[in-house]
UniProtKB/TrEMBL annotation:
One of its GO terms (molecular function) is signal peptidase activity. It comes from the Bacteria. It catalyses: Cleavage of hydrophobic, N-terminal signal or leader sequences from secreted and periplasmic proteins. NCBIfam families: sigpep_I_bact. This is Signal peptidase I. The keyword Disulfide bond does not apply.
Amino acid sequence: MDKQAAQTNNQVWEWAKAILLAVIIFFILRSFIASPSVVSGYSMEPRLYTGERVIVNKLLYQFAEPKRGEIIVFQSKKGPDHIKRVIALPGEKVRVEGDRVYINGKLFDEPYLKEAVEQAKKAGTSYNFIDFAEQTVPENTLFVMGDNRSKSRDSRDPSEGFVDFDDIVGRAEVVFWPLNNIELIK
């Protein structure tokens, strides 16, 4: 084998190692740290829209508990993963009456819905038509709701119910697609 052939074989081997390392790193990142998720349906409008893609932080909840207001991705009891907003935490009493959510008897302020609720009021209607009688959130579960309250199958629906901590995939961090909508999720 001449010198040029040996050099070519060496370059091929180096490229193969680099590609293999990249694939291994990709699978580790996707499995344990972050993964993409597609928004499907209208339940999170006006915050997230069908077809948008988000990066889900899978590592965060290994070290911290979910917080009220965060948008999480979780495994649904019926079908594909869902994306919803955390409303009430374990041990809290939650109820929903029209456009108002009460946690432990106090009105919960939801600034991310103010504009949509005001538009519904101007139109002479309610933004939310699905009430929820007061219940205490069981330990190791969350009460979640979609931002598009009347078009969301969430914890108010008995077929979905409270979300078990074990079913949480992670917190939605960034919208990365479509490119003109790239932004951090607050």
